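Input sequence (128 aa), recorded before submission:
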Amino acid sequence: MMQFLLYCLCGGLGVSSDYLVYHFSIGNGMWYQAANVLGYLTGTLVSFTLNRIITFRQRDRVLQRLALFLGVATVGYTASAVLLWLLVAQAGLDARLAKLLTLPMVVVLQFALNRRFTFQSAQAAPAN
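Predicted structure, C-alpha coordinate format:
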Protein backbone atom coordinates (compact mmCIF):
# COMPACT_ATOMS: atom_id res chain seq x y z
CA MET A 1 0.00 0.00 0.00
CA MET A 2 2.81 2.42 0.87
CA GLN A 3 4.47 1.65 -2.45
CA PHE A 4 1.28 2.55 -4.32
CA LEU A 5 1.02 5.81 -2.40
CA LEU A 6 4.62 6.71 -3.25
CA TYR A 7 3.94 5.74 -6.85
CA CYS A 8 0.93 8.06 -6.87
CA LEU A 9 2.96 10.89 -5.34
CA CYS A 10 5.85 10.54 -7.80
CA GLY A 11 3.46 9.78 -10.61
CA GLY A 12 1.41 12.79 -9.57
CA LEU A 13 4.38 14.98 -10.33
CA GLY A 14 4.74 13.22 -13.66
CA VAL A 15 1.02 13.57 -14.38
CA SER A 16 1.17 17.24 -13.40
CA SER A 17 4.03 17.73 -15.83
CA ASP A 18 2.06 15.84 -18.49
CA TYR A 19 -1.07 17.92 -17.97
CA LEU A 20 0.75 21.26 -17.81
CA VAL A 21 2.54 20.58 -21.10
CA TYR A 22 -0.73 19.28 -22.61
CA HIS A 23 -2.74 22.28 -21.40
CA PHE A 24 -0.10 24.79 -22.53
CA SER A 25 0.23 23.10 -25.93
CA ILE A 26 -3.53 23.10 -26.56
CA GLY A 27 -3.66 26.72 -25.45
CA ASN A 28 -1.11 27.48 -28.16
CA GLY A 29 -3.17 25.83 -30.88
CA MET A 30 -1.66 22.34 -30.94
CA TRP A 31 -3.99 19.45 -31.92
CA TYR A 32 -5.06 17.58 -28.77
CA GLN A 33 -3.51 14.24 -29.82
CA ALA A 34 -0.13 15.88 -30.62
CA ALA A 35 -0.30 17.73 -27.29
CA ASN A 36 -1.02 14.38 -25.63
CA VAL A 37 2.18 12.86 -27.10
CA LEU A 38 4.31 15.79 -25.92
CA GLY A 39 2.76 15.91 -22.46
CA TYR A 40 2.84 12.16 -22.03
CA LEU A 41 6.54 11.95 -22.92
CA THR A 42 7.40 14.73 -20.47
CA GLY A 43 5.39 13.15 -17.67
CA THR A 44 6.82 9.71 -18.38
CA LEU A 45 10.42 10.88 -18.02
CA VAL A 46 9.66 12.75 -14.79
CA SER A 47 7.76 9.77 -13.40
CA PHE A 48 10.46 7.25 -14.35
CA THR A 49 13.19 9.23 -12.64
CA LEU A 50 11.24 9.75 -9.41
CA ASN A 51 9.77 6.25 -9.20
CA ARG A 52 13.07 4.55 -9.91
CA ILE A 53 14.75 6.39 -7.06
CA ILE A 54 11.97 6.92 -4.50
CA THR A 55 9.19 4.37 -4.95
CA PHE A 56 11.01 1.25 -6.08
CA ARG A 57 14.54 2.18 -4.96
CA GLN A 58 16.14 0.63 -7.99
CA ARG A 59 19.48 2.01 -9.09
CA ASP A 60 20.67 -0.86 -11.27
CA ARG A 61 20.01 -1.53 -14.96
CA VAL A 62 18.84 2.05 -15.58
CA LEU A 63 18.70 1.80 -19.39
CA GLN A 64 16.95 -1.58 -19.28
CA ARG A 65 14.43 -0.25 -16.77
CA LEU A 66 13.92 2.90 -18.85
CA ALA A 67 13.22 0.75 -21.92
CA LEU A 68 10.67 -1.30 -19.94
CA PHE A 69 9.14 1.87 -18.47
CA LEU A 70 8.81 3.34 -21.96
CA GLY A 71 7.16 0.10 -23.10
CA VAL A 72 4.65 0.34 -20.27
CA ALA A 73 4.20 4.03 -21.06
CA THR A 74 3.40 3.08 -24.65
CA VAL A 75 0.62 0.81 -23.39
CA GLY A 76 -0.60 3.62 -21.13
CA TYR A 77 -0.35 6.18 -23.92
CA THR A 78 -2.35 3.94 -26.25
CA ALA A 79 -5.06 3.57 -23.62
CA SER A 80 -4.98 7.34 -23.06
CA ALA A 81 -5.21 8.14 -26.79
CA VAL A 82 -8.14 5.76 -27.30
CA LEU A 83 -9.98 7.09 -24.25
CA LEU A 84 -9.34 10.69 -25.37
CA TRP A 85 -10.67 9.90 -28.82
CA LEU A 86 -13.79 8.34 -27.33
CA LEU A 87 -14.39 11.25 -24.96
CA VAL A 88 -13.50 14.11 -27.34
CA ALA A 89 -14.36 12.92 -30.84
CA GLN A 90 -17.24 10.62 -29.96
CA ALA A 91 -18.75 12.05 -26.75
CA GLY A 92 -17.98 15.71 -27.51
CA LEU A 93 -16.26 16.51 -24.19
CA ASP A 94 -13.78 19.34 -23.86
CA ALA A 95 -10.27 17.99 -24.51
CA ARG A 96 -8.92 19.33 -21.20
CA LEU A 97 -11.70 17.71 -19.16
CA ALA A 98 -11.38 14.47 -21.12
CA LYS A 99 -7.66 14.28 -20.29
CA LEU A 100 -8.42 14.65 -16.57
CA LEU A 101 -10.98 11.85 -16.77
CA THR A 102 -8.53 9.43 -18.40
CA LEU A 103 -5.72 9.92 -15.89
CA PRO A 104 -6.93 7.67 -13.00
CA MET A 105 -7.49 4.69 -15.29
CA VAL A 106 -4.08 5.02 -16.91
CA VAL A 107 -2.32 5.46 -13.54
CA VAL A 108 -3.70 2.19 -12.15
CA LEU A 109 -2.85 0.32 -15.36
CA GLN A 110 0.71 1.61 -15.44
CA PHE A 111 1.35 1.00 -11.72
CA ALA A 112 0.41 -2.64 -12.11
CA LEU A 113 2.59 -3.10 -15.19
CA ASN A 114 5.58 -1.17 -13.82
CA ARG A 115 5.50 -2.99 -10.51
CA ARG A 116 5.39 -6.34 -12.26
CA PHE A 117 7.86 -5.75 -15.08
CA THR A 118 9.91 -2.57 -14.82
CA PHE A 119 10.85 -2.32 -11.17
CA GLN A 120 10.86 -5.93 -10.10
CA SER A 121 14.05 -6.50 -8.13
CA ALA A 122 16.59 -9.02 -9.37
CA GLN A 123 15.91 -11.21 -6.30
CA ALA A 124 12.18 -11.33 -7.09
CA ALA A 125 12.58 -11.92 -10.83
CA PRO A 126 11.22 -15.24 -12.05
CA ALA A 127 13.80 -17.79 -13.18
CA ASN A 128 14.15 -18.19 -16.94
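Checked by second reader. The chain has a mean pLDDT of 87.
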